[in-house]
Structure formats: structure tokens, C-alpha cells
Amino acid sequence: MGITDNIKICEGISEISDSYTGIILDQWGVIHDGEAPYEGVIDALTNLKKRNKQIILLSNSGKRAEPNAERLREMGFDTALFDHIVTSGEMTWTGLRMQTEGIFKGLGKRCLLFSRGGDRSIVEGLDVEIVDSATDADFILVSGSDAPEKTLADYEPDLKIGVRKGIKLLCANPDTKAIMGSKTLLGPGQIAKRYIDFGGVAHFIGKPHQPIFQYALSLFKNVLPSGVVVIGDSLSHDILGGLNSSLDTCLVGTGLHASAFKGLQSDIARRKALQILALNFGVKPDYFVPTFQWGKPLPDRKNKRRST
Question: Is domain 8-60+229-289 in CATH 3.40.50.1000, yes or no?
Fold first, then answer.
């Protein structure tokens, strides 16, 4: 028996929806590609809500929950389809505001912030001073990257200074790769990992780490963990995080692992691809669906985006 023989391969979310009341759902690479919704996603979400499913959007986004909600509305999503939006950026903001527990305790006020496009929403409203160099910083905060305009090497001078000073780095988005349309870009997690390579101390806030999953579970109303499924596109974040939290998981064939399933139509071919991924990443999901949609796709459909 192969290691992936017990993975149920589905054509749509409808095949597993009756088994769960709560859904922890990733966004980038699952319901949208960073620019527009994938085809069939809004229909699937609508069908789930009609069946009274509780849906928590759980994202490694370095942005807070409301900026994420606004971006979803701009893409055409009705955010009423989600019961809660939980982001690693929101958890980071809360920790920085208090600075009384765990990795946030006594961080200091001067922050070197690495974000996308100069976005400072993760520190808005906080008693934190943004500085221009690690030389003047009490800690480093990574919420995004300016890839492809900047490469990993562009961040290294400040990272080396931070390591020499012995200051902490907080990564509010552990993703090592970012999806933008059809491109895969440098993720903030790679910046944090390079800090560790240089000998620094970095803390990751978000998936696959358990605190963010436990927080998401606490938001469900009258739903046991056995009634929750985690749906995502990343084996190393969504599926591993769900597994570590003793939750059932479903891998979607779009997003980060899309190239592994491109052009595969038969269950035999998909199972072979799943086996290779499971061996490479050391984890496997309980379910697989080619895309986050309600039922079987049309014959000519090849992961097209919904036009906007």
C-alpha cells in the first residue's frame, strides 16, 4: 500500500462538506492568486454558507485583518462569506501593543520594518518608532518583501548588523514563497531564515505554528476540533499546521504546488504527484481537490482565473 493510498481525491469541496461544520481556509493560492479570485471559488463559498458552515480565513499575511478584508472586497469577494479573518499580522500587532508575553516581552520601541511597498499598517496605532537601519533598531519586524524589485541579498546588510547587535527578528509572515498572479516571489519567511543562517534569533508568527491554529479554533461556535478541516495549498504551512493541531486537512492543487498537478486529469496521475510531494515534505493531507470549487470542473477548464 502506497503512502498516499488513503488520501481521498475529490473533484470538489462538495464531496467533503457534509463531514465538517468548521473550515479553516487559506487565501493566497486557494481562493485567489493575489490579483483575482480563482474560477468557481465564490460559488463554492456561497454553497458552504448556505449549508451553515463556519469559515475562518487563516492567512500568513503580514497585514492586519481589516486591510486583508478590504483587499478581498476589491477583488470581488463578499467578506460576509467569512465568519472571521485571522492573520499573522493581526496577532503580531496585538503582541507588539502589549509587549508583556512570550516573544514580545520587552522588545523595545525602535523597529526596523521590512514590508511590501512601505506598508506600515502592522505598526499603526502602536508606540513604535520606525528606523531606517538595524544600527538604530531594538528589533527587526518582517511583514513582507519588495520582491522582485529587491532580492534576498538586498536585505542581508541590515540582517548582519542585527545579528551582531543580538536583537530579535519577528517574522509576521512565515511564507517562504509568495504568489502574485502567475509568478512566485521571495517570501518574508526567507528573510527570517537568512537571519537564522547568520546566527540570529528569529521568531515566526503564523502557520504552521500551533498558536495561530489554536486561536482560530477558539473562534468557532459549538464546533469540536473533529468537525474542522484545514484547506490550503501549502504542505509545509497549511497541511503541516493542521496535522500538528490534530485537524483533518485538504490540499488544493492550485497555488504553491500547482506545477506538480498541471495537466493531470486522472486520479492515478494525481496520486503519483501526491506521493512525490509527501516524500519531499514529509506530510500528506487527508483530501485533495484540484481547485477550490464546489463540484466537478468543466472539461476545458485549466485553473483559469475568474475574469474581473
Answer: yes
